[in-house]
Amino acid sequence: MTINESQDEIIEEFELFDDWADKYEYIIDLGKKLKGFPEEQKTEDNIIKGCQSRVWLNAHKDSNILIFEADSEAIIVKGLVNMLIRVLSGHTPQEIAKADLYFMEKIGMSQHLAQTRSNGLASMVKQMKNYAIAYSLKN
Amino acid sequence: MQLTELLDIQAIRADFPILNQEINGRKLVYFDNAATTQKPTSVIETITHYYNFDNANIHRGIHTLAERATRDFEASREAIREFLGASSIEEIIFTSGTTQGINLVASTFGRKFIKEGDEIIISGMEHHSNIVPWQMLCEEKGIKLKVIPVTDLGELDMEAYQNMLSEKVKLVSVNHVSNSLGTINPVKQIIDLAHSFGAKVLIDGAQATSHLNVDVQALDADFYVFSAHKLYGPTGIGILYGKKEILNAMPPYMGGGEMIKDVTFEKTTYNELPYKFEAGTPNIADVVALKTALEYIAFHGKENIAAHEDMLLQYATEQLLDIDGLKIIGQAKEKISVVSFIMDGIHHQDIGVLLDNQGVAVRTGHHCTQPLMQRFNILGTTRASFAVYNTIEEIDRLVAGLRRVKKMLL
Predict the structure, then answer these.
(1) Does A104 qualify as catalytic in the annotation?
(2) How far apart are the first and last CA of chain B?
(3) Which residues fall within 8 angstroms of residue A118, CB to CB, at 6 or more apart?
(4) CB B201 within 8 A of CB B223
(5) Residue B349 is nearest to which of A25, A28, A52, comparing CB atoms?
(6) Cβ neighbours around B408 below 10 Å, total
């Protein structure tokens, strides 16, 4: 599945929800399902500090694709992180670097990316792209 | 209609047009008043009127508009003098806000009168803006910064404070009221003790002025700083009160227009107080509107406002404690209408997002008091802070909202 196919799939899933509570319950559920990091892996090297909550992000290359793992202490951020990983993880660095992430706006969650001071999510997206750029330059 | 003693809260709510709107399909509940209060129509209209009819640069113009703008600007200074109980308008300096007021004192009084080996005392419940300017000064000059500890209830440890005082202490800078906890600090006692050792005292009144009567002469404060936007006035305006003899002894802060008497390339002489500290064209419209905000408060009576807010605080505290797993951070005996809390197993950001979706605006995070959060071993809190226009029904909305948050997350 391409990055855009994954995004479209998420947008379709969210079309089923009538109100904010259903939407957030789904995101909370995604947050709970995301396998987090063990405490010892939450280090100063992989932390992304936000004003509100912290996010931890790891990236490694497996043959020609990038795999992301992430965690957050806030469950809604964790649910959004889960979706970002679903969309971006497992693609080549080139694909990730040029990806246009439109799904957050389409599902009504763009405010979580806009509040750069409030949470680490926007910084995490930037960091995912930075990893992709760094790995694509390496080749 | 809800009446609290003498106040008609529904009529007051009608004075604040911003409150009459829906957020995410629900009527807005605004509980972020400690960050900034909303503005009554009279304040908004003063700003509009100023730009529609009176706008001119102040003090040096000879024409009618300049006279009008200057008259209203200076009338505001006089209103603030009265509001603070200061003895002279020379002691009222306009700044951009509390933060600038503190930085001004650190950069002028601090640089001139505090030397290597001296000490400055702050408290463990200060906002970053009453920590960082002193840290910068201390680093620059080799001054020692000491911190009054905070008790489990969220009060200052006054015994520890007394033991910290010595002839080495040149300045004590503490808040009147904690923005994170709502604690009202015993500033009169703090000032008297500091003075007995010859230290000067700056009081950060950002959170106090909309709730408490302040009399700088009765307190004997050397400096008192606050912001207009937390007491129903505009953003971008603050006040530095300073005792005249201290302000006179201080060097200027910024150089420029207004603050000079005569300029030649060889030598500049500085203007008299208060203009010595007011370089550049000030925020005239907002200064003028601050007077309107003070009139709004005076019209309703600060005691009446405080009584209403105390009732809300008491009700909110009872209702919130009824939620299992909720703990209030800051249980001082003397508090203004701020309630800061944590909930077992729930991150404050999740609380903030889910309350916003129910139309309830609260503040979440460390409230610019990271050392205080570390003191309580927490990452942050959810803070609801009340103003004159808030109601019991709105607190019920918060409590119901929190019960729903709990259901969704746990």
Answers:
(1) no
(2) 37
(3) A50, A51, A52, B349, B365
(4) yes
(5) A52
(6) 18
**HSE of B194 in the Cβ direction (CA atoms, 13 Å)?**
26
Q: Which of B145, B368, B373, B378 is catalytic?
A: B368
Paired strand residues for B173? B202
Q: How high does pLDDT run on average in chain B?
A: 96
Catalytic residue, from A51, A98, A105, A114: name it. A51
pLDDT of residue B410: 87
Contact B203, B127 (CB under 8 A): no
B366 CA: distance to closest CA in chain A (Å) = 8
Q: Which residues of B fall below an 8 Å CB-CB distance to A? A: 24, 347-350, 352-354, 357, 364-366, 379-380, 404, 408-409
Pairwise CA distance, residues B101 & B207, whole Å: 14
Instruction: Give percent of chain A with pLDDT exceeding 90.
Output: 67
pLDDT tens digits, residue range B19-48?
A: 999 999 999 999 999 999 999 999 999 999
Give the pair of three-digit tokens for residue B180: 């994170």
Tokens at residue B336, please? Answer: 């203004």
Six-digit token pair at B332? Answer: 């001082």
Q: Tell me how far apart the alpha carbons of residues B332 and B28 are, in angstroms, rounded to a whole number.
A: 29
Q: How many CA atoms lie within 13 A of B93 on its CB side?
A: 34
**What is Dmax (Cα atoms) for chain A?**
46
Residues paired with residue B335 on neighbouring β-strands, in sequence order: B183
Residue B299 CB contacts under 8 Å (≥ 6 apart), including other chains: none
Residue B261 confidence (pLDDT) above 70: yes
| Range scoring the smallest mean pLDDT among A104-113, B72-81, B157-166, B266-275 | A104-113
Q: How far is A139 from chain B (nearest CA, A)?
A: 39
Torsion of CA B364, B369, B374, B376, to 10 degrees: -70
Closest Cα in chain B, distance from residue A68 (Å): 23
**Which pair of tokens denotes residue B228?**
């207009």
Name the one residue in this structure whose structure tokens are 């106040």: B7
Copy the structure tokens of residue B71: 């008259």
Residues of A in contact with B349 (CB under 8 A): 52-53, 74, 76-77, 118-119
Determine, for residues B408 and A28 on separate chains, whether the beta-carbon distance falls below 8 Å. yes
Is A52–B354 a contact, with Cβ atoms under 8 angstroms apart?
A: no
Token digits for B36?
């900034």
Cross-chain CB nearest to B349 (options A21, A24, A77) = A77
